[in-house]
Amino acid sequence: MKPPLFLRIASVLTFIHCVLHTIGGVFSPPSHGAEEIAVIDAMKSHRFDVLGSMRSYWDFFFGYGLFVTLGLLISAILFWQLSVYARNNAALIRPVVALFFCNYVIMAIISWRYFFIAPAITELLIAACLGISFIALKPSVSSS
Fold this sequence. Notes:
This protein is mostly helical.
């Protein structure tokens, strides 16, 4: 098991997740009929003051969708960069890989509960790659 390979697989899966989330979740037009359009219109039409700014529920929904896109993109880039350091700096990157492993397991649980199966499976695959990388990233034993 080579940690750089699994970190790069995690990077590519995360980038694909980012692209599909952005296309399908953030910028896709309504596709479930009149009731969905009515809900979106209601989210857009009711505006309220939030700390001096007029916002709607749609603003929050859309903005949080963009936050997810950004977070996934940054994760994909970070996993690729970690793969470069995996050979020589295992002890330094293991805690980061462990943290993201936990993050993606929890994201999968949230996706399963509140969204749908496709992102949950993708997040579990990413977590699996990170978990394998963590196990394979054995800190080098230094002789002192």
